[in-house]
Amino acid sequence: MEELVTKINPGKSLFRLLLYMIVLGVSIQLVLMGLSLLVMKILSPESPFSLSFFQENTVALKGMLLISSVTTFILPAWILYRSESGIHPYFERINKVSSLQYLFVFAAMLCFIPMMSLLAYWNESMQLPDSLRGVQQWMRASEDSAAVMTKQIVEESTWGGLLINLIILAVVPAVGEEMVFRGCLQNIFGRWIWNKHVVIWLVAIIFSAFHMQFFGFIPRMLLGAFFGYLYVWSRNIYLPIFGHFINNASATITAFYYTRKGIPFEEMNNFEQEPIWVYLASLIFTVIFVVLYYRSTKKIPYGARLEED
């Protein structure tokens, strides 16, 4: 087995993954965007031939976001998995997953929400030195641009729209991003670096930086590390996918609730300071459920296979 694991250099695997992400993620999106604009021009000759079409049309924007998630994450990760199948353990499902473990992850994610909001507020309040003022202005402009797109997508008041948003914003990103970051990158870097904690935090940093939303870097990095530990402890890719889904779905459902109440998107993101005991309780209960989850993974004999069901 050890002989098989060392067959492919991790640098080659990383290069393949990045190549697939660039070729599929960028090329396919450009082709589809071009075809969409061409069809729009044929159907409506008076319409301007401009990429602003995707910014002004919510349906088109959601479609491109869905295609982006599939071509940038799911397809490249799956192709790498198939090309190295039987050699490297991407998307492990070595251990069985109990319903109790899903419950612990669900509870931990919900309990962490108040603490995550506080961390996001602190992160957003950070100021770079004057010498890096230009960098901070660029980061703010990038954040504001992302917020405009997010507002256009999440301000949905119909149940059908909520279902579509859950698929686009929660299901597909959870599957795709965990396939790439935990399934592929964590395994690739794990062949270079033997310390699993270093690998988990390194991938978590890359995961957060990839989103290009710098004023939420710290809480997203912590989430990435949490998903990494879920994967290492359980040896099953389904657990980090589930945790990622809960995080994204809770934000999507909250936005839907506020939209139904007529509350503007800008007010949804306003931070309201809670009493200190709320954050202490958030932290304590999150730790409790994480510990319970960790202990539950130790009760499953290592190597218990799914096919034994």
UniProtKB/TrEMBL annotation:
One example GO MF annotation: hydrolase activity
Keyword match tRNA processing: no
Keyword terms: Hydrolase, Membrane, Transmembrane, Transmembrane helix
Domain CAAX prenyl protease 2/Lysostaphin resistance protein A-like residue range list: 161-249
First-tier enzyme category under EC: hydrolase
EC number: 3.4.-.-
InterPro entries named in the record: Rce1/LyrA-like_dom (IPR003675)
Pfam families: Rce1-like (PF02517)
Bilayer-crossing regions: 17-39, 59-81, 102-122, 158-176, 188-208, 214-232, 237-256, 276-294
The keyword Aminoacyl-tRNA synthetase belongs to this UniProt entry's keyword annotation: no
PANTHER family: CAAX AMINO TERMINAL PROTEASE (PTHR43592), CAAX AMINO TERMINAL PROTEASE FAMILY PROTEIN (PTHR43592:SF15)
Protein name in the entry: CPBP family intramembrane glutamic endopeptidase
Species assigned in the record: Sphingobacterium kitahiroshimense
